[in-house]
Design a protein that fits this description.
Length: 866
Amino acid sequence: MLPKKKLSGAEFKKIRAKKLNVNQKSASLMQTFIKLGSRQKGVEEEMCRSGDQDRSLSSSTIIGSERDNECENNTSATLSEQIQEIEAGENNGMETESTSTHNSKEDTDTQVTSDLKSMEKEGGISSINSSSELELEIINYNNPVNWKGDKVFLEQLIKNGPVYGDNLDCYPVTNTRQFSKKYFSKILPNGNSIQRKWLFYCIERDVIYCFPCLLFGGASSQFSTKKTGFRDWHNIGPRVKSHENSTAHKKCVIDLITFEINLKKRHFLTDEIQKMILSETERWKHILKCILDAILFCVKNNEALRGSVEKIGHPNSGKFLQTLELISHYDPILKQHIDSENHKKYFSPKIQNELIAIAGNAVRNEIVSRIKQAKYFSVILDTTPDVSKSEQLSLVVRYVEKNGKTCSIEERFLMFIEVKEKTGYALANILQKVLQELGLDIQNIRGQAYDNGSNMAGQYQGVQARILQENPTARFVPCSAHSLNLVALHSASISPEIITFFGIIQNLFNFFAHSTVRWTKLKNALNITLKGFSDTRWSSKALALNALITQFELVLDLLEEMTDVSIYSGETVIGAKNFQKNLKNFDFVILLVFWSSLLNKINKINLLLQKKDLTLDTACKHIKGLLEEIKENRDGYFEKSERDALQICQNCTLSTEYKEVRKRKIKKMSGELADDFYLDPKTKQKQLFFQVIDSIITQLSNRYKGLHEICSDFSFLNGSVLSKMSLSDTEKCINALCDKYPNDFNCTEFIQEAESFKFQTQELFDIQGQSALEIYQNLHKYDLMAEYPNFATALHIFLTIPVTSASCERTFSKLKLLKNYLRSTMSQQRLSNTAILSIERIIAESISFDKYISDFASQKARQCCL
């Protein structure tokens, strides 16, 4: 053999330049990815033309590349058949390549199989999907550093094997040494050659690895170390032989083969199991739908689900299980499930809580999606203690909802939140946290409505002040109904005479209510029973006064009857005589007439203010109307009340004289007259009337300043105001509004829209006399939102601002029904989800829970089948 010829200097220079070029391209080359069941055209041919550059390309194939026509023509068999052929060939372990494909019983096209195998060796096929769909999987199968450690990836990698890197003509030179292609096979003593399937070459890192040891052997040698690999080309021969003859390596190979066998067994059973799962899923869907319907039936009707015994068929099993038992009489599938010996019935409290949570979250997500669609919203908060002495915060959101050609104002309940502190700081933090969890942006809040408590409405430390610091456009409106109730409460405690008057009425109710005998007599004698007072029930005083004044004569007759000592006890007789004395007093009668008339007017407005769809302009009209009526009749209240009181006294044959009060002796001071100043009873009563009326007028003016201010900012949106307003006044109003909402309007366009809207929409609808809500509905009806975007946005914001927190009070009524003394240990999550299903039952009935039931049923079916 001739000695090896030494290369010239120019040749060495070319080799160095070529190596430098390879390193630069390898450093900048993007990692390429394996496509399940796809390969690029002419990988081997391209490598021959491009040299070392294609060594990095051959490690993986870009996913999503188009199949070439030549590959399609050569693969006439179906893709699933080709996979079976490949997998069957790989199962032969360490047999030679020449016999591997012939030994597979499933081979139907030998040529196709060999083609696919050659493609797999080239890195063109790393995994094949049975559906033959092109999917993107961002994985480099040639570089172990990028391999994931999850079970799914492990199965995919073992099924298809790594990219071996055995299709390169030459390999990079390191210290005058390089890897040789001959190490991919082993020469036996008899001259036969077998492939080393355990060895693969990493093109990017210029190292070799042992595939089984990488997966099952840990980091016991360089062949199984991801970060380093093996690159000692000088000693590669003995090191490869030593490694493949080691006990640890052989154990890893056995583990790999065992895993492949189990993987294929599971693949063959997939179709059968899938059919079982589908059948079981349909059965569970039906059963779970029955269970969910029974739960929703109980929840929507505020009923307790559980009984004292968690066993269906037991008399004390509770309404949920009894409802399921009733349904099973007409449902054979549910009947079979109940009667089966399977212990997995899914009737347990845990399943109840899971299904309640699924349904509650579905309703809550639906509401949140509608809020996001509307963009702007307002928050309404209030707190109350529950039966377990926990403080519950009710969160209600107000927004404008669009449905086709119509739109409406909605106030939706979201959840109950248990709070440990009631300070403004704590409540504001809770609100911000909940909104963030729900995905609602606090910057889209345009209104706040709370009661008049200092922790809520405080000017500096209240919730409203802290939210305003985060979002200055979240305008605060004190609850109008609560404010009106406070007006009446404060006026009713303005003087000792008024306090005594209401005390007599409350004690009269207690006198009858504390005895079943007296209450029975009262019910038999009166058409309407007497009512008591409540500081939180806004209309309680008006109802109590109406019940007494409309049946005043009957009450006196009943008290007269109860003074008979031969029939009633001494306590009853004494109480009846005392109340007779108080009720027959003319001062009491005139106050009864006065307060009944006054509170009826206030109560009518109070009921109007509690509507969900009430807007600020309508509320302002009602408040202003009440204030003007009281001012106008201020001087005539006493005379009218006196006339009506005289009529009642004449009908009941009572005295019409004012009660004489003894003249009080007042100490004479220096410079005073000798005689004490004295007012006759009638004049004193008249002054008391004026004192009460003036107090109401003052409080109505002061408590609704914020409401009137916001109405004034948006007053030009009212049809009657806009139609009569001049252009200069309109510009002033719009400029002032844009200053307060700088991120919501384009001021110049807004002015142009308002001026043109006033004249151009006359042919469609008459804006004069229309409220803001009616104008907004017409804009939506005639698809004019795009033509008047700023005008529509202003109307949208105005309608979003709440008037009262009455919706929170209504949720408290549900709270008392859901969490009563028998259900005082209910968890907070179950309470909140149950409440939203009960309060927002219309949305709950409109939502299809099929998707949630299918997901839930699939989980249960797989648990049973697998």
